[in-house]
Amino acid sequence: MKYGVLKTAGCGPISGKPRCRLTLLALLGCVVCSAASAQALYKYRGDDGEWIYSDRPPDDGQAIAEIRSLTPSSPRSGVSIDYEADGNAIRLFATNEYFAPVEMALRFETIHGLEFPHPDDPLRWLLPARSKMPLVNLGRLDGAVQPTLEYRYEHLIGDPQAQHRPTGAYRVPFAIASDHTISQAYPDMVTHNTPDSQYAVDIAMPVGTDIFAARGGVVFDVTAGNFKGGADAANMSLANVVRILHDDGTYAIYAHLNWNSIRVRVGDVVERGEYIADSGNTGYSSGPHLHFAVVRNVGMTMESLPVKFVGADSTPIAPATGRILTAY
User: Fold this and answer.
1) 319: which residues sit within 8 A by CB, 6+ positions away?
2) Helix, strand or coil for residue 313?
3) Helices (H), the chain
4) 226 CB burial (10 A radius; 0-12, 13-18, 19+)
5) What b-and-e string marks burial along 171-208, b requiring 16 or more CB atoms within 10 Å of the CB?
6) R_g of the chain computed on alpha carbons
7) Buried b / exposed e along 128-167 (16+ C-beta atoms within 10 A)
8) Tens of pLDDT along 54-91?
């Protein structure tokens, strides 16, 4: 399952006369993310006629008098390529709006009237979080009247030099003193059959179970508005997900979260054990559970990493299918 892959591919042409305004078109595709966090306040009458204000709708089907949006303003996320042009050169630069580093690769399809990049230039960069970085500077050839440039690019979240270095075992991502059964873990790979999910852990739990951060970090991606789920691959992109970047460059994925329950937003710094959302059954799911994985970029591709959880007496516990996992 591709919950770990935040990858965008695109292409664009640049054409025009020197000293004139040029046109840049970027066609983006295959973006598996969203940075909107849908929050709402519900107003309805209680059993005694009193007004009740809650972040959840009434369970008994009570008529709702008002729904107010509580969606916080959230910094934009994404990566874009733009350009600057003058009479002598065209300069491409990239903007990374994520609160996480991004690896970018660029390939030129057509160049007319401009200098070619050096053949030894790998045309690959690491864009720091929240940064704007120059990519290439292409000088105009003498006598070129209308330089043109066509290119393709892709980018992937994460530093390809990142190494998994947790300071200890991960906190079990639900409430202390409670327990739930692991429904899938390595080496069982019924649905975890891609490199980005091989070591993911599925934990069966009722919808609405409180989910806590297994490790601290920075929230860089949130998908929160989905409500549909089921055992149909067409639901793959409909999971509510929180992604949290760790200080070693890896990041955690919390997937299938409940609709309208996510309580963190892009840019938040969360501590280990901080409440982030409720579990759910959104996306490609055969039943209510939490999909938890730690992944890293290994060079324009994602791989999942084996993790251990804190057990009794702080003993590290390796997840296994069928094991009852207790939070300590």
Assistant:
1) 182, 185, 186, 201, 307, 308, 309, 325
2) helix
3) none
4) buried
5) bbbbeeeeebebbbbbeeeebbebebbbbbbbbbbebe
6) 23
7) ebbeeeebbebebeeeeeebbbebebbbbbbbbebeeebe
8) 767 887 777 887 776 555 456 767 999 999 888 788 99
Domains contained in the chain, CATH given? 7-33+75-157 (2.60.40), 40-69 (no CATH), 179-326 (2.70.70.10)
pLDDT in tens, 232-261: 888 888 899 999 999 999 999 999 999 889
d(CA 322, CA 328): 19
SS3 category, 84: strand
Find out whether 186 and 192 touch, Cβ atoms under 8 Å. yes
Q: Give all strands of the β-sheet with 89-96 in edge-to-edge order.
A: 79-85, 89-96, 131-139
Q: How many CB atoms lie within 10 A of CB 49?
A: 6
Give the span between the Cα atoms of 195 and 302, in whole angstroms. Answer: 7
Q: Is the peptide bond before 187 cis (omega within 30 degrees of 0)?
A: yes
How many CB atoms are located within 10 Å of the residue 11 CB?
17
Burial class, 127, CB count within 10 angstroms (exposed 0-12 / middle 13-18 / buried 19+): buried
Q: In sequence order, what are the residues at sequence separation of 6 or more whose Cβ sits closer than 8 angstroms to the Cβ of residue 236?
A: 1, 2, 283, 284
User: pTM for the complete prediction?
Assistant: 0.80
DSSP SS3 for 42: strand
Residue type, 4: G
Burial zone of 118 (CB within 10 Å; 0-12 exposed, 13-18 middle, 19+ buried)? exposed
Strand pairing category for 283-284 and 229-230: parallel
